[in-house]
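Exam revision sheet. Question 4 asks you to relate a sequence to its structure. Input first:
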Amino acid sequence: MTALSPILQKKFNGTIWRMDIDEVTSALLLEIRNEADRTTSFAAINLPKAHLNFDGYTTHERWLTGMETAHNGVLLLHFFQGESSPVHKGIAAVNVADAAALWSNYSLAFDHLSINGPIMFNTQMLPKKLYVHDIETGKAIRPYNYVIDSELIRQIIVPQYISPQQLPAQLQHIKPANGLIHYIEHNSYRIVSLHTRNSRGLQQELYVLNADSICYEEILMTDIQKLQPEAFVLHKNWLICLKNKTELLVLEL
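Answer key, structure tokens:
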């Protein structure tokens, strides 16, 4: 049996609210929200080096901000029009390597990420006009062309569903609490997450199998009352998991 262990394990000061991946650099970006002190912070991880680039980065707006996208070593953040408004307002760009502020523009809004860079528009101009922007400077390059500026597709694999009858033989002794079992095959590995019942409610478990053996297992969440969404995603050879919504686990498969 080949035992696995995380190449990176990090607990953050809040709930990991959102994750994104920079396809160019294979950096993992995290948005962490702490409702107790009303702070939104950001973290960046270099997956190839299993290295934490930075953690706890905040903007001048410590709560009403969020992560827009990441591309080519730059993280784009957005703000909100107000406490009760979901409308995004403004863009701030941060260097993924060291959290250095690169530029900001409070008239721009993000539309989507293309293969040629972010597509944005000026919220002060009507009708709405989309432009390709230089992500490192924020400058408009040219008008958006849907033919050549196709959307960037990230190499992120999400699990599929299998039934309890399709569980690998090594896990057939487990009684899932329901039929929602998440499953991925990658290289020689099979990754499974499922819910089981204990005396206090439900718990979410993760298993990684190689050949005929379980080479990694983890309880990702305990004492939960309702089913949780998928516990992991796969980017290239990195299995990215969340534990108790506050801790990141990365395994290399």
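Marking note for examiners. The first strand starts at residue 8 and ends at 11.
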